[in-house]
Amino acid sequence: MKIQLEVQDHSQCHMNERCSKYEMCPITLVHKLISGKWKILILWYLMPSPLRFSDLRRKLPDVTQKMLTQQLRSLESDKLIYRKVYPVVPPKVEYGLTESGKGLIPVLETMYSYGIDYLEDLNSDK
User: 90 preceded by cis ω (within 30°)?
Assistant: First the structure.
C-alpha cells in the first residue's frame, strides 16, 4: 500500500476512543484512498464487471488519458483495483475491483442512495 501512515493526534476526534489505537484515523485513510477527481467514478463503473481502458474513457469523457492513467495506477497501487494484461496483439488490458475494492461497494451504493435522496429533496423544495 502506498498510503503513508501518519501518526495522528486523535484527541480532537469524536471517535477517538475507537480510532486512537491506529496510527492513522480510519476515515482519513479512506479519504486518502478514494480522494481524487475520478476515483469514485472509476470504482463505480468497475462494480458490475471489469472494463478495458477505452471503456473507462468512454464512460468518463471529461477525463484526460493522462489523468485516467494516474488515477488507475493509484487505485492499483492501493490494491483497490487490479490490472490484467492479456498476451494478444493488439494489447488488451482490463481493470477490475480487487476483494478490497469490492469492500467499497456498500459505501458507493450508500453514496448513490444519498444522491437520490438529495436530488429528491431539491426537487421537493421547488
Answer: yes
**Architecture of 38-124 per CATH?**
Orthogonal Bundle (1.10)
Q: Write out the three cell numbers for 108.
A: 458507493
| In the chain, where the domains are located | 1-35, 38-124
pLDDT category at 21 given cuts 50, 70, 90 is confident
Digit-coded pLDDT (tens) for 84-95: 999 999 889 999
6 or 112, which is more confident: 112
The DSSP element (H or E) to which 79 belongs, if any, is none
Sheet holding 92-97, edge to edge: 51-52, 92-97, 81-86
